[in-house]
């Protein structure tokens, strides 16, 4: 199937459910992203700042760019003028840097707090205690140019669906608790981003309202193998 057909199929699947699609376009060429755009997709997610900046400059300006990879504080300045959402905020230090550059650009930048839910050390994110400490810190209350829209999580990379289901369930329970405790009056705290190509159906069942799909839309990533000389 073509990228266009894939986009249309997923849009038709998600629309009745009220779930937002972030098309993960990392490593994908401009032509593929343009085809997805022409099929009606407007939100694209990138892992690397430099790759996002390059694509931002070459593609339509009404695209909403989401940064979904680990973000270093020294890279925030390159995307602060145009980024729609940073989904991978995992420290108060990073939030302060985003706030600083949002202020310089006279913007309020939407952010998701990334929670570590996977049984893997390689994944980034706040644990439950760190999340509460961040939200209760004096530093957090002083940030006026960021808006916390919700939480994001990446499940363990496993075929064990029961395991994945439990991780997503726990994140939904945490999301509901955080909303009641810290964002009760903020209607903007409304986003739970969880689910990728391999597990998005489970994520939606467990309450996700934003999913991040790459290979489902664009096909499998081509990994080049170079023969040693």
Description:
It is a single chain. This protein is of the alpha/beta class. The chain has one domain: Alanine racemase (TIM Barrel). The protein contains ten helices and eight strands. It has helices spanning 3-14, 30-38, 49-58, 76-79, 92-104, 128-136, 138-141, 161-182, 200-205, 215-218, and strands at 20-24, 43-46, 64-67, 85-89, 109-115, 146-153, 191-194, 210-213. An eight-stranded parallel sheet has the order 7-6-5-4-3-2-1-8. Strand 4 (85-89), helix 5 (92-104) and strand 5 (109-115) form a beta-alpha-beta unit. The longest helix is centred in the C-terminal third of the chain and has 22 residues, at 161-182. It is globular and about 50 Å long. It starts with a helix and ends in an 11-residue tail after the last helix. Residues 223-229 have low confidence and may be disordered.
Beta percentage is 15-25%
Structural class: alpha/beta
* CATH evolutionary superfamily: Alanine racemase
First and last CA, distance: 37 Å
Number of helices: 10
Tell me the Rg in angstroms: 18 Å
The parts where pLDDT drops under 50 for at least 5 residues are: 223-229
pLDDT average, as an integer?
94
């Amino acid at each position: 199937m073509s990228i266009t057909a894939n986009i249309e199929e997923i849009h038709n699947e998600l629309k009745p459910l009220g779930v937002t699609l972030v098309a993960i376009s990392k490593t994908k060429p401009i032509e593929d992203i343009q085809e997805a755009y022409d099929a009606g997709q407007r939100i694209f997610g990138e892992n690397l700042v430099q790759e996002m900046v390059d694509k931002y400059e070459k593609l339509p300006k009404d695209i909403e760019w989401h940064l979904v990879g680990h973000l270093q504080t020294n890279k925030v300045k390159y995307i602060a003028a145009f980024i729609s959402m940073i989904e991978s905020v995992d420290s108060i230090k990073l939030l302060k840097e985003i706030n600083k550059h949002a202020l310089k650009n006279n913007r309020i930048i939407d952010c998701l707090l990334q929670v570590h839910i996977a049984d893997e050390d390689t994944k980034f994110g706040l644990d439950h205690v760190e999340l509460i400490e961040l939200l209760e810190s004096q530093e957090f209350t002083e940030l006026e140019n960021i808006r916390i829209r919700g939480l994001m999580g990446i499940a363990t990379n496993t075929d064990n669906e029961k395991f994945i289901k439990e991780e997503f369930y726990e994140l939904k329970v945490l999301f509901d608790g955080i909303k009641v405790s810290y964002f009760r009056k903020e209607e903007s705290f409304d986003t739970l981003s969880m689910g990728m190509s391999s597990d998005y159906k489970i994520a939606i069942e467990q309450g996700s309202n934003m999913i991040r799909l790459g290979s489902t839309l664009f096909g499998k990533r081509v990994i080049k193998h170079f023969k040693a000389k």
